[in-house]
Every structure is written in C-alpha cells, then in structure tokens.
Amino acid sequence: MLNLRQIKSLITVVDVGSVNRAADVLSLAPSSVSAQLRELSSSLGVSLFEPSGRGLVLSAAGRQLLPKFRHLLVMNDEVLAQAQSLVSDPAGELRLYAPSSMCIYRLPPLIETLQQTAPLVELHLQHDPFDYRQALAERSIEAAIVVVDDNDPDYNSLQIAEEEVIYVTHPESSQKKKLSPAQLMEYALITTEPGCSYRVAAENHFKSCSLRLAPRQCFSNVEVIRRCLLAKMGIGLLPRCVVAEDIEQGRLVQQSVSGAPYPFYSTVIWPKEAEVSPRLLAFLQSVESSQADAPRKKLTAV
After folding, report:
1. Cβ(283)–Cβ(114) below 8 Å
2. Which domains does the chain have, with CATH numbers?
3. Which of 108-112, 147-151, 276-280 shows the lowest mean pLDDT across its residues?
C-alpha cells in the first residue's frame, strides 16, 4: 500500500537534491528518510533511485512515476482542503506560478485582499525559471499568472489587468523624435530573455519591418533591466507597470517608437478539467474584487 509520507520524502529528496537536505526540510533523521525510500521501492517492486557519485538520482522507473507521485500529494491536499472547507473557511497552501514582474507589481494588492478574505490560505509562489505548463499538467501548482496577448483555449482564464509593454530610458538618453525599429537598433537595447512574451512581441514587430531584434543585453528579471535604465545603460523593453512610478517621478521616460507599445493582459489561468479548490476560488475572487469596474464573472468551487 502506498504511504503518503514515503512519497513526500521521495519528492523532497528529488526537489532538494539529497537525503540529508530532505531530512532537514522534513525534520527527520537521514536514516528515517532513507528507510522510507527503501520501503516505498519495496512496496512497489521497483528501484526508484540509483547511485550517482556520492548521491542518488531517480531511476528510469522513478522518473516515470514522479509525476504520479506529485499528483497523489496534490490530490491529498485537495481532499483535505475541501473537507475542511465544508466546516470552515478556505485553508491550506495555494501553489501558483507568476513571473517576476507580476510578483513585484501586480500580486501585492491581490495578496492583501486574499489575507483579508481568506486568512488561512497560505500562498506559495513559483517564479522563473519554471515550466508552469508542465506543473499545471502535473497539478503541482493550481494556477499560473501569465502575461499574454490572447487567451489560451486549453485553460480557463480570468484577466487581472491590461498591460502595455513599452520602450523606456533615462531622461538624459531619450530621443524626442519617434524612433523607427531601424533607428532603435542604433541604441543599446535591453530586453527580457529569449522566449519571453514581451520579447517575442518585439521580435515579431522587428520581423514585420524585415529586421532582426538584436539586444545589447538581456535579463530574465525585469528589476535588473529597470536598474540598468536608471544607470543610463540604454533603452529597455518593459511592462509599463514596472516603471510607472519612475516615469511619474521623472526618473525614467517612455521612448516613443513606431509600432509600440505592445498590448498584453496579465491573466490567471488554470486547467479546464481541474476542480477549482476553495483556496483558488478565494484567490480568483480577490482578483475580481480588484476589478470593481470590470464585468463580473460568477465563480464557483467544483
């Protein structure tokens, strides 16, 4: 029979990289963690780990079973949370993904509302680099906050806010005239990393002008780009929400570029076939309450 404590030990070893570190996380002796791994392998009749140097790595069987193990723990949490919700307020850990720009500039007021309306819900955030699609499929997270230019038909979605991705620079580096993409390439351009939706939009814009976007620097963290701009290092591509206060205070200015800004939407997405837990429902309602002027969509837990 499967033992959830054994499964949690296995997943913790995989996530933190060693039995000793997993023992610290779980507040167990390393020998207890090792015993649980052996018992789990024995009950399943397969070897879940194999030696690698001085440590352990998942075997082929372990790698195949890992998504199922994660799903079992998620289902256990969902059963406990739903049972608790029948007699009390939403509670437990709500696992979400959000990129750094959303973590810093959009989530704080939503978290504040969630703390007021569902104080027993504990928000756990994953951020880049992270494969949120795989995590949603495995149910290791319940929802993701993404910045998109269109809805994905594979997911339910709830819009948080309209976003504009703009070109911005230090006042001393700004050009009063509107720049074409070709003229923009004459300056040190700082963007997010390849594959980021902001950069993809810019790449498509440049491609429509028969040009190739060639940034001088690229970073995965929008705050790093912002600080580079404050240091007069070039023209950056950022969501307006990241630099709104800097523009208002005159520390940065928007650089006018033909064909920009690029329109986006910050959006909460979750799998269509997944149940909406009371925890996630409470979060979605906090998003709705932040949009008092927007049309309301009734949400219910399944």
Report:
1. yes
2. 4-65 (1.10.10.10), 70-161+265-289 (3.40.190.10), 162-264 (3.40.190.290)
3. 147-151
